[in-house]
Amino acid sequence: MDLKEPLVPKPIPIEKVQTGIPEFDLILRGGLPRGRIHLLEGAPGTGKTTIALQLLIQARNDGRKGLYITLSENAKELEATAASHGWSLDGLPVFDIVPIEAQLDRQQSVLYPSEVELGETVRLIIDRIERENPEVLVIDTVSELRLLAQDQLGYRRQILALKQYLQGRRCTSLVLDDLTHQNGDTDLHSLAHSVIVLEQIERTYGAARRRLRIAKMRGAEYQSGWHDFAITKTDVLVFPSLIAEEHKSDFEPRTMESGLPALDELMGGGLTQGTTTMLVGPSGVGKSSLALQYVTAAVERGEHAAYFSFDETFKTLGLRSLALGIDIEEAVHRERVGWHRANPSRLSPGQFVWQVRREVEDRKAGIVVIDSLNSYLSTMPEEQALSLQMHELLTYLNNKGVVTILILAQQGVISDVQNPVDLSFMSDTVVLLRFFETGGEVRKAISVVKKRTGVHELSIREFRLFPNGMQVGPQLMDFRGVLTGVPEYRGSADPLLNGSSETG
């Protein structure tokens, strides 16, 4: 008898309900599974009510009937919350339950008041659901039901009855829990099909960081891990964590030139597409100006560039660019350069990564500058986690064929220059910028110490920033103390730049 291959059942497609937050739907792989009970839990102030309102507004826009049952806020308070975001609850039924103890004559009852209160409250909820017949339901919050319970068994019995009732109606339900009573967590987790956790982290200084994760979702695919999110005046913005391997693209690596022949000779022709270059040096040595030179060259070729600045305001950048003969303000005005001022005390790491992705995926940026890596690592004290997140971002940019320039400021100015953190493993090319002394003057030198994608010059060149724009001179062979980090030039003044024109 021939053995037949075992039949593998085909997965049943799950219909999804969109939440009204597009990036949240990406994490949920399309939305919340329809007809199921989903638990949204988080401490007070984490954004549960705001997310729930977005779900019901989306349901209304999709032509689905919704219902908001609140045991913690009244209808006017919910309308005020929605109005603060510019939303309207017109057409959305809101049912606020009056505390049952105000309706009961305790002296007439032979039962524990809590037993009557909990059962009566659940009955009121079911009666209103029967009357409205919603397709999408929000119950805010189950913590109030827990307060009415005399014991855990009675509470679980009532919650289980409510779950069975909702499942029979094929209603997509979002139940909120403010975690004010931890004893009921395991019961709710076991009864709910999905568990979504919201968290708010207070920083020592700056805005609090909000994040969420899907703790479980039975029978449905989702993106695991923590995801930053923010609540703005008009929207809830979720920033899905980056998975670099999901964004591979085919491209033919090419070389990006700087517009300065001598600098391109030093770099072995230029920067290779799909690689990361780290500009390392002390403060004031010209790292940002060098990055700006590559941005300008890209714009002149008709490409889009993105500049993320943690340290410098746009006004300061504009003044410096004009001194270099570059009009960065005009390029930004014409949307050839996407300039972003990243405030470390207000920006979450996930939001920063999302901004970079929008420049690359929506505006097709061919070069991305991050200025500086030091300030990025200061956004949170968890340096190891941030380093891993930056590594994932750089892998993503390399997969998309972007030329990435990282700026790393070293501690110190002239002597005893040190790296605040060793992140050279992230980069394919490392460019070292240094001050050096000659003829009673402090000048600037540039050299390439690493390039994975090709051959580069091993020599040191001088460069100047002002007054005639950026200038790069010929190779300088008469240096001493290069390995000490404070090179000293002992040669003649003939090869040195005099500020007239670029040499190369």
UniProtKB/TrEMBL annotation:
<keyword id="KW-0597">Phosphoprotein</keyword>
<dbReference type="GO" id="GO:0005524">
    <property type="term" value="F:ATP binding"/>
</dbReference>
<dbReference type="GO" id="GO:0004674">
    <property type="term" value="F:protein serine/threonine kinase activity"/>
</dbReference>
<dbReference type="InterPro" id="IPR051347">
    <property type="entry name" value="Circadian_clock_KaiC-rel"/>
</dbReference>
<dbReference type="InterPro" id="IPR030665">
    <property type="entry name" value="KaiC"/>
</dbReference>
<feature type="domain" description="KaiC">
    <location>
        <begin position="15"/>
        <end position="252"/>
    </location>
</feature>
<feature type="domain" description="KaiC">
    <location>
        <begin position="254"/>
        <end position="486"/>
    </location>
</feature>
<dbReference type="GO" id="GO:0016787">
    <property type="term" value="F:hydrolase activity"/>
</dbReference>
<keyword id="KW-0418">Kinase</keyword>
<keyword id="KW-0677">Repeat</keyword>
<keyword id="KW-0378">Hydrolase</keyword>
<dbReference type="InterPro" id="IPR010624">
    <property type="entry name" value="KaiC_dom"/>
</dbReference>
<keyword id="KW-0808">Transferase</keyword>
<dbReference type="InterPro" id="IPR003593">
    <property type="entry name" value="AAA+_ATPase"/>
</dbReference>
<dbReference type="InterPro" id="IPR014774">
    <property type="entry name" value="KaiC-like_dom"/>
</dbReference>
<dbReference type="Pfam" id="PF06745">
    <property type="entry name" value="ATPase"/>
</dbReference>
<dbReference type="InterPro" id="IPR027417">
    <property type="entry name" value="P-loop_NTPase"/>
</dbReference>
<protein>
    <recommendedName>
        <fullName>non-specific serine/threonine protein kinase</fullName>
        <ecNumber>2.7.11.1</ecNumber>
    </recommendedName>
</protein>
